[in-house]
Design a protein that fits this description.
There is one protein chain. This protein is mostly helical. The protein is 78% helix and 2% strand. The chain has a two-stranded antiparallel sheet. A hairpin with a 5-residue loop joins strand 1 and strand 2. The longest helix is centred in the first third of the chain and has 53 residues. The two termini are 44 Å apart. It is a multi-pass membrane protein.
């Protein structure tokens, strides 16, 4: 009898420890998600300040200054696949009080907006190159960028067809596809962040070369480097916020609300 009581007490204590650990983990994940939101706002503000204040503004059409067309590219690529894409990933972590169906719609809508901004950003840089007589797709940044936006579009289409489209896959198939969808989404997001790092580096290298010779330790150079760092930290925060560290040390994605 005493042994049974001891075992029951031991199970209760273990359950209490697991619940306390889960609560502590959730608090940490919320803190990381909040940091990701703050970094997202900072990234947008910094890239807009750079392109508007230091580079003269943005425009989809410009006869006199073609650089204004290019300036749309970094703004839209940070805003789209990275900030809106990151917010779409975080929607399952941040919108806990929202019904599952609404979270799914927010996830798809944010990714759709991010994809639209990304496509427009790619169009802007192609338009700038054509009107300025600059070759297209000659750099590593451009190659990786085309791969990233193409995979982003494919990931969104696959997710829409599998999890959102009326008459989508049956529950068993959705559960089987979910881990692949979650992992692919995080990988595409990480690729977008890596592409942005290459882009910041490439543009700053151009600005610091003749004829502009931007000072290497000037305010604009520091702003570009700091913006790239904020985008990198945003990427890390989004990835960490999507992982749920369990009590046994394993990890699982927070996308379980999709199915």
């Amino acid at each position: 009898m005493d042994m049974d009581m001891d075992m029951d007490m031991s199970k209760q204590q273990q359950q209490q420890q697991e619940e306390a650990g889960a609560a502590s983990n959730n608090n940490k994940q919320r803190a990381v998600a909040a940091a990701a939101h703050a970094l997202a706002v900072a990234a947008v503000v910094l890239v807009v300040v750079w392109c508007v204040h230091f580079r003269g503004g943005v425009a989809l059409r410009s006869v006199q200054n073609k650089q204004l067309i290019f300036n749309l590219h970094p703004v839209l690529m940070v805003l789209g696949p990275i900030v809106l894409g990151g917010e779409a990933i975080l929607s399952y972590r941040s919108l806990l009080l929202v019904p599952r169906a609404a979270r799914k719609k927010a996830h798809m809508a944010l990714h759709a907006a991010g994809l639209a901004a990304g496509v427009l950003g790619v169009y802007a840089v192609f338009k700038f190159h054509v009107e300025s007589g600059i070759p297209n797709l000659y750099s590593l940044h451009s190659w990786v960028g085309i791969a990233a936006i193409s995979l982003y579009a494919a990931q969104w289409a696959a997710g829409f067809l599998a999890f959102f489209f009326p008459g989508a896959s049956p529950p068993a198939r959705r559960r089987a596809l979910l881990p692949w969808h979650a992992v692919a989404g995080v990988l595409v997001f990480a690729l977008a962040v890596a592409t942005a790092q290459l882009g910041f580096l490439e543009k700053l290298t151009f600005l610091q070369s003749p004829p502009l010779r931007l000072p290497k330790y000037g305010v604009e150079a520091m702003l570009v480097n700091f913006t790239a760092l904020v985008v990198l930290l945003l990427g890390v925060a989004v990835v960490l916020a999507t992982l749920n560290i369990t009590t046994d040390g394993t990890t699982r994605s927070s996308y379980s609300a999709i199915v």
